[in-house]
# Entry
Amino acid sequence: MRTIHILAFVFFASVCVAQVPDSLNQTDTQGLKQGVWKKTYPNGAVRYRGAFANDIPVGVFRYFGENGVLKATVTHTGDGVHAATTIFDESGKLQATGFYVNQKKDSLWTIFDQLGRTVALERYADGDAHGRWETRYPEEGTVARTEDWSHGVRDGLVREFYETGALKFEMGYVKGEPNGKVLARFLDGKVSLSGLYTLGEKDGEWLFYTSEGKLKRKETYEKGTLTAREDLIKETPAEASRVNPADDPANYDGSAGY
# Structure
């Protein structure tokens, strides 16, 4: 008889446990998410885990890859608007930190390389590039390039620097169009190019110099049209055929040297 009572108790307890509702992924009577939520991939691996209060994410959410590696943490303030984010690469190393406002990038984002060194600073407003962007030489930690943005449009100066910090290139933008003086320098500070853009079009005299500081070519533009060219020093075939951003700064992307 004692054995029967014990079996009955065990059966009753197991039924009670089975009847306890899963505490994950719950909504209230109004359909609002409450408590801890967890979503998984088709293979069963956790995709994310975090908590809600009245449908608003609160605290830390963790996101994972299908291999189980942590991809990101998002810390919510509880207002459903602001969140601080940390992103990791496939190997789990820190890749970026930044902020979201209304699920859009906002304020300062910092980008890191595999060794944890800062390689870029980006600034956003309402998801658009806004403010001063900066890239760095990871070895030296010095600034390699800066550019100014206004609500997703280049507006201000674009500058590039040598590892030593010396100015390499500079040109201005107004509402996304190249505008103003263009200047490029060799590592020793000598000018390699000077010119002018007026509302997106080359204008006036463009002067090109050798590394010794001698004027090698002069070009004259009027509203983007080349009206005159004078070659003062003959370039070698390699120099003449080489793709050089200084020859057309409007296409300059910082990927090549001078």
The mean pLDDT is 85. Helices lie at 2-19, 237-241.
